[in-house]
Design a protein that fits this description.
602 residues, alpha/beta, Glutamine Phosphoribosylpyrophosphate, subunit 1, domain 1, Rossmann fold, 19 helices, 27 strands
């Protein structure tokens, strides 16, 4: 995810920016840049790839004496990772860096283009600097122009803007993306997390959504919708490792909690009350396409399997799902009327990449769903949709799975609308539920506390069965995988109706059954399946909105108006359960044994 650093003061600005950006490398990025105003003159440097490339570009540059500076590491969401698309973005006399997504940027870009502003990049961010200069050129002072600019923006953003028109000032705004201000005497620092300013600033102010203002040496003014407000300073933490984890015990835990935010980011500009839109698919026609084949591995395979229910149910398209490592060797029948979809978190999964090459050789149209722009699978595909999950440090995938599922749900609705297989009423119901998903992913202290307490009862025994029906069967597979990956306990996911076809022979008091029992999807059927296990003395943990009297343990979920809302909420419960069991067993949650984040070999 993108990172921001800013500084106002007399110290060497280049090193402060570069060192700060280096502290943000753990968030992931594909390009970096910085801008400095010194002696009323702007300097700008950008580089694609790792930060060492930006260091090389700036090795002859020094910035002694008072000045202002901003820097950025970019994770591509709009436009490829190129120097033109890297931040900071330039107007005639101003620069801007931005985290987040400007939802209405196309409308703003068209407006500005019609007025003669020339865009150099493919990004949403560039609209900010041109909009600012439009208002400044109309006669407004710099702060009023900035204030009017942010009033026009829709979506999520953290913004730093500098301009030659006021060369001692950084303008800032925060809405939905993190931003903080650090203080050390008259020096002022900005960052998107604590780590870049640890050891430099001594106090910090964490900005709230809707806050904005400007900073000069020793003078920071803060505003919100009610006008000027007091700055709330706090002591700054000094542990960089903990600062990266933002107080969480493990990166995996942090990433579970981030899911509400990243799923919201995944939807911005794509899902709204007006429908589903993917700019990335403008060149991909469905004409002549009658079926879908999805190829993936591991967690991505589980997302694919769940989506197959949605594509067939909503879009009425035949959808088959293949494990990539098997697909390559089965001599598959590939018809040109099939859309070939690959899913990969890293975009470098060797088996999935080879399967994609086979499909392209057979003449199939290809689409990839991926978290990494400019990765091998993205480059190989005809079209790609980025999931916008940001870097995922935990080896056991959580937020990557959540964002994949959201993209696939949106895609199934888009196809359904284009094919005319869904009524307006049903489409509206789906969109209404979709827009509620970020709320369903917010984790309460009560829920996490209960799972922590329950986890101590599930440390021993001879295994786990995760069971579910319909889309909750792939979720059962994913829940079991999460537990296996980080706890090293044996777990299997099963369709609930299949238990009596063999696996129920294992049922006894030492067999733990995690039953996904959604109220909105075949509740009576799965209740009957769980009763069969209970009768064989299996230990039952029921996850459901409805209490189940035969359950030994019960985790009550809140959202029971749509199956997908239940899906996402139960997903979080299974992730937290695996996390807490693993922590009690003393395992390294982020780096489980024998596993790697990106599997680049067969």
């Amino acid at each position: 995810m993108c990172g921001i650093v800013g500084y106002i003061g007399p110290k060497e600005k280049k090193e402060i920016i570069l060192d700060g950006l280096q502290e943000l490398e753990y968030r992931g990025y594909d390009s970096a840049g910085m801008a400095v105003i010194e002696d009323h003159k702007l300097q700008n440097f950008k580089a694609v790839g790792k930060l060492v490339n930006l260091r090389e570009k700036t090795k002859e540059y020094n910035s002694d004496g008072f000045g202002i500076s901003i820097g950025h590491t970019r994770w591509a969401t709009h436009g490829k990772p190129t120097e033109l698309n890297a931040h900071p973005h330039l107007g005639k006399y101003s620069y801007v860096v931005h985290n987040g997504i400007i939802e209405n940027y196309q409308e703003l870009k068209q407006e500005l283009s019609d007025e003669g502003f020339v865009f150099l990049s493919q990004t949403d961010t560039e609209t900010i600097v041109h909009l600012f200069e439009k208002y400044h050129n109309s006669g407004l002072n710099s702060f009023d122009a900035f204030q009017k600019t942010i009033q026009r923006l829709e979506g999520a953003f953290a913004i730093l803007l500098i301009t030659e028109a006021q060369s001692d000032t950084i303008f800032f705004a925060k809405n939905g993306s993190p931003m903080l201000i650090g203080f050390d005497s008259n020096d002022v620092y900005f960052a998107s997390s604590d780590t870049p300013i640890i050891g430099k600033a001594h106090e910090v102010c964490y900005l709230n959504d809707g806050e904005y203002g400007y900073a000069r040496p020793g003078d920071v003014k803060l505003f919100d919708s009610n006008g000027s407000k007091e700055i709330n300073k706090k002591p700054l933490v000094t542990n960089k490792a903990m600062a990266q984890k933002e107080g969480y015990r493990f990166f995996m835990e942090k990433e579970i909690y981030e899911q509400s935010t990243v799923v919201s980011d995944t939807m911005i500009g794509r899902a709204s009350a007006n429908g589903i839109k993917f700019e990335e698919l403008s060149s991909l026609s469905l004409e002549g396409i009658t079926s879908i084949k999805i190829c993936a591995c591991g967690t991505s395979y589980h997302a694919a399997l769940a989506s197959s229910y949605l594509f067939e149910r909503l879009a009425k398209m035949r959808c088959s799902v293949e494990i990539a490592s098997e697909f390559r060797y089965k001599e598959p029948l590939l018809d040109p009327d099939t859309l070939f979809i690959t899913i990969s978190q890293s975009g470098e999964t060797a088996d999935t990449l080879e399967a994609l090459k086979m499909a392209k050789k057979a003449g199939l149209k290809s689409l990839t769903i991926c978290n990494m722009d400019n990765s091998s699978i993205v480059r190989e595909s005809d079209a790609a949709i980025l999931t916008r999950a940001g870097i995922e440090k935990g080896v056991a995938s959580t937020k990557a799975f959540a964002t994949q599922m959201m993209v696939l749900w949106m895609l199934s609705l888009k196809f359904a609308k284009e094919r005319g297989t869904i009524s307006d009423e049903k489409f509206s119901e789906e969109i209404t539920a979709m827009l509620q998903v970020p709320k369903s992913l917010i984790i309460s202290d009560k829920l996490h506390g209960k799972i922590t307490r329950l986890s101590k009862r599930y440390l021993h025994g001879h295994g786990f069965f995760y069971i579910g029906r319909d889309i909750f069967y792939p979720l059962a597979l994913e829940g079991a995988l999460k537990l296996k990956e980080i706890s090293y306990l044996h777990a299997e996911g099963y369709p609930a109706g299949e238990m009596k076809h063999g696996p129920i022979a294992l049922a006894d008091a030492e067999l733990f059954t995690i039953a996904l029992m959604p109220q909105t999807s075949h509740y009576d059927k799965i209740k009957s399946n769980v009763e069969e296990l209970s009768a064989r003395d299996a230990t039952i943990l029921s996850i459901s909105p409805l209490p189940f009297e035969l359950a030994d343990d019960f985790i009550q979920t809140d959202h029971a108006t749509h199956p997908m809302l239940e899906f996402f909420e139960m997903m979080v419960v299974t992730q937290l359960l695996a996390l807490e069991i693993s922590i009690r067993l003393g395992n390294d949650v982020d780096m489980p044994r024998n596993l790697a984040k990106s599997v680049t070999v067969e």
